[in-house]
Each structure stands twice: as C-alpha cells, then as structure tokens.
Amino acid sequence: MSTGQAAPKPVHQHMRRNPPIAGEAEAIQAAQGGDARAFETLYALHKRRVYSLCLRMLGNVAEAEDLTQEAFLQLYRKIATFRGDSAFSTWLHRLAVNVVLMHLRKKGLPQVSLEETLEPSQEDGPRKDIGARDLMLSGSIDRVTLERAVENLPPGYRLVFVLHDVEGYEHNEIADMLACSIGNSKSQLHKARMKLRDLLRTGERKEPAV
Amino acid sequence: MTTTRSDRKTMTCAEFQDRLPELFESHADLSAEEHLKTCENCAALVRDLEYIAQQAKLLLPIHDPSPAVWDKIENAIQTEGSGQERAEANRPPVRA
Known about the structure:
Chain B: It comes from Silvibacterium bohemicum. The structure holds 2 protein chains of 2 kinds. Helix content of chain A is 63%, strand content 0%. Chain A is mainly alpha-helical. In chain B, 69% of the residues lie in helices and 0% in strands.
C-alpha cells in the first residue's frame, strides 16, 4: 500500500519542471531588444506549455487559443521587465495563469470570483463512501482517461486541481492567485480529487468488457 | 481540541474522511492511522487519491495551438509596432 511512506513535499515543483532551454537566454535578450525573430523563437519554445495550461484551465479550444494569443501579446509588451529573478518559463507561466484568471473573472464565472462560489453545488461535491463497498482504481488509468476526467471537473475544482496537482503551485500561491484562503484551496483540491475518483471509477465501470 | 489515539481508533468513516484533506496536506504517514488498519473502504479511498495526485504530475503539456494563433500574434504585434512608430513620429519635438 502506498500509504506506508509519507511522500516528501515537492518544493516549487513548477520550477523543477522548468529546466533551462538551449538558446532561450539568447532569445530572451534579443527579444528584449525588439528582435521579432527572437520573439518567434520564444513562442515556438513555450507555445505548447502555455496552450496546454490554458486548455486545461478552460476546457475549451477556442478560448484556450484566444488566451494563448493574449498571453504572448502580454509577454511581448512586458518582456523588457523580465529581470531573471525566476526561470523565464515560471514567469511566463504565471503571466499566462493571470491572463486566464482575468478572463474568467471578466466572464463573471462564479467559480473564481468569490470564495464561497469556489464551492460548487452539493451535488457536485464528493460523497462520503460510508457503508459502500468501494472498488479501488485499477492503477492503470492512462493519460487520456485522466485528461478527459479533468476536463469534466466542475470549473472551480478544475482550476485548483490543475494549478496544484498538474502545475505544481503551492496552496499559498493558489490562494493568492484566486483570492481565496489557503484552507479553501486545500479543501477544493481534496474535493477535486474525490470528484475525479468518482469520474474515473464511473468511466471504468462503463468500459466495455473485452 | 486534539484528537487522542483512542479517539482515532473509534473514528467513523465520515470522521476520518473529514480529516483527510488535513492528513494529506500534513504529509503524515497515513498507514499509521488506526482507522485505515481496519477499514478497507477508506484504505482504498486513500490509495486512489494518492494515485490520482501521482498521475496528475505526469500530465505533460501535449497540446499545440493551431498555426493561426501565431499568425494573429504576429499581426497584432505589427499593428502595435506601427501604432507606436506613428505615435513617436507625431510626438512634438522637445524644446531645449
């Protein structure tokens, strides 16, 4: 059972995931000087990461493309302010997260506007498994299945899950980004994982027998 | 109020599950939880939630935006650039 060992807390996981990229430093410097080709290089290096983030947070291709565009336009306007205090990809990533959150707030989606509305309805919430005989997840959930389940999470849950478990942000960072309490971020993450478990188990039961 | 070891022993599933977010965040050794030693249901739940968190870390960025996205960015940059140039050209000369 994997509960035997407490896992060490990943420290700034998103930074560990952002190793230096060959040619990036030169491209940044050149782009800061107004070199359009260098900016295109930066786009090529980071478009997948930024777009995947937008898509996972929004669950909508058209919106994800629009916001990828917006994130890179903001990058173009702000790149001169990048001082290298953090990895460039970390900085760009945070910029993209802010673009998505700003968009969601403008749309007035309740899931990100107020603390209490980070709580989806009770029906969306996890259920207690009291008295139920649970089947454990098979341990062989593939990436596509998990991606699909994440897409089907309620938006409030999805945001916190993507930011914490996929992107590696800490609860204090998420609380800061979503303007909610750290406790709320923790609670939302737990509910998101519970909901995912539900979705994955339902999916497993629906799988046709081979 | 602190929970004593004997309290934990008699914990119900609902009580244990209420404490789960806190337990996960504390990175405590959950196998030491008395409730899990006797409750297969909650043990399976804990294993599943740990599994989901582990798998999530493996979700790599795999999606690419369509080429149209760069075209739009390039156009917008050119428009902004020419706007800035016009603004600079129209700026009145600074008197010495």
